[in-house]
Design goal:
286 residues; single chain; disordered C terminus; disordered N terminus; 9 helices; 17% strand; six-stranded antiparallel β-sheet; alpha+beta
Length: 286
C-alpha cells in the first residue's frame, strides 16, 4: 500500500512536469514565428518564473527550443522541427477524411468527395457514394481546373491573394459547361462570397445537372491540401439545402484540417464565414 502510494505520487509529479513542458512548447508553437521571453511564458501559463526558466533551459538543452542570447527570447528549435516533420509524414489525409465523408453521407444522403490540389488544378482522390439510386459519382484521378465547380472554387478561394492573381492573370478561364464562370470579375466576386460564407456552391458549373457544395482542407502550415464536397443531382440542391449542406461540409473540413494540425486564427468580432482563417475579401480589380 505504501509502495503503491509512493509510485502514484511520483507518477503524478512526472505527469505534472511533463504537462508543464508540453504547455510551454504548445504556447511557443502557437505564437510562432513570434518569439517569447521567460516572463511572458511564466505569466501566461501561471508558472513560477523559476519553474518556467528551468523547463525552458531543459528544452533548449535538448534542442527542442532555440534561445537568442541578445534578445533573451525563445523559439522552436530543430528538435521540434524533426518531430513536426515526422508527424506530417505519418499523416494520411484521405484516411483521416474518410470517416468525415461517411458521416456527411449518412447525414445528407448525398455523395461526398475529397479532392487534392495539384498545381493549378485539382484531382479527385476519394469518394463515398450516396445510397440513393439516382446519385452523383466522380472518376477518381481526374484533373479539373481551379475555377470550375465547388471543389475547385473552394481551393482557389483559400489560396493567398498573390496566387489567385497568378491564376486569374495567366490561366484562361475555360468554359467547361454553359454555367462555368469565365468572367474574371464574376470569379473575383465569387471568391469573396466563398470566403465570407466559408464554402463554395456550384450548380452545373463543372457537370451539367449536378449540384455541389465544398470547403477547403488545410495542412498545419495553412497551405491548402484540397477540398471536401457533397454533390448530387442539381434539383436536390435548392438554396436552403445548399446552405445546410454547405455548413456541414465547412464544419467537417475544419475538423479534418484541425486533425492534421491547422489552427484557425481568432475571428474578428462580428465576422462571419467558415473553416478558413479569415482571409480578407479579394479586392475587385478591373
Amino acid at each position: 500500500m505504501t509502495i503503491s502510494t509512493a509510485i502514484d505520487s511520483e507518477d503524478s509529479r512526472t505527469r505534472s512536469g511533463l504537462g508543464r513542458a508540453l504547455a510551454v512548447i504548445n504556447m511557443i508553437a502557437e505564437r510562432s514565428p513570434q518569439t517569447l521571453g521567460v516572463s511572458t511564458i511564466a505569466r501566461e501559463l501561471e508558472l513560477p518564473k523559476a519553474v518556467a526558466h528551468r523547463i525552458l533551459k531543459e528544452l533548449v538543452g535538448d534542442g527542442f527550443l532555440g534561445f537568442d542570447e541578445e534578445t533573451k527570447q525563445y523559439r522552436l528549435g530543430p528538435g521540434a522541427l524533426a518531430v513536426g516533420l515526422a508527424a506530417l509524414r505519418a499523416l494520411n489525409v484521405p484516411d483521416i477524411a474518410r470517416r468525415y465523408m461517411v458521416r456527411l453521407v449518412r447525414a445528407t444522403g448525398e455523395t461526398a468527395t475529397l479532392s487534392m490540389r495539384q498545381g493549378w488544378s485539382r484531382v479527385y482522390v476519394d469518394q463515398v457514394l450516396s445510397p440513393h439510386e439516382v446519385r452523383m459519382s466522380v472518376s477518381l484521378g481526374t484533373s479539373h481546373p481551379l475555377h470550375s465547380g465547388s471543389s475547385s472554387k473552394a481551393i482557389l478561394a483559400a489560396l493567398p491573394d498573390a496566387e489567385i492573381e497568378d491564376y486569374l492573370d495567366n490561366h484562361g478561364l475555360e468554359r467547361v459547361t454553359p454555367a462555368t464562370i469565365t468572367s474574371v470579375t464574376r470569379l473575383r466576386e465569387e471568391i469573396a462570397r466563398i470566403r465570407e460564407q466559408g464554402f463554395a456552391v456550384s450548380l452545373g458549373e463543372r457537370q451539367s445537372g449536378a449540384g455541389s457544395v465544398a470547403a477547403a482542407v488545410r495542412y498545419s502550415t495553412g497551405q491548402v491540401f484540397g477540398s471536401l464536397s457533397l454533390c448530387g443531382p442539381q434539383d436536390r440542391f435548392d438554396p436552403r439545402t445548399c446552405a445546410a449542406h454547405g455548413a456541414l461540409v465547412a464544419e467537417a473540413a475544419a475538423e479534418i484540417s484541425a486533425e492534421i494540425g491547422f489552427r484557425t486564427a481568432p475571428r474578428q468580432a462580428g465576422a462571419r464565414g467558415g473553416a478558413v482563417s479569415d482571409p480578407q475579401p479579394l479586392a475587385l480589380r478591373t
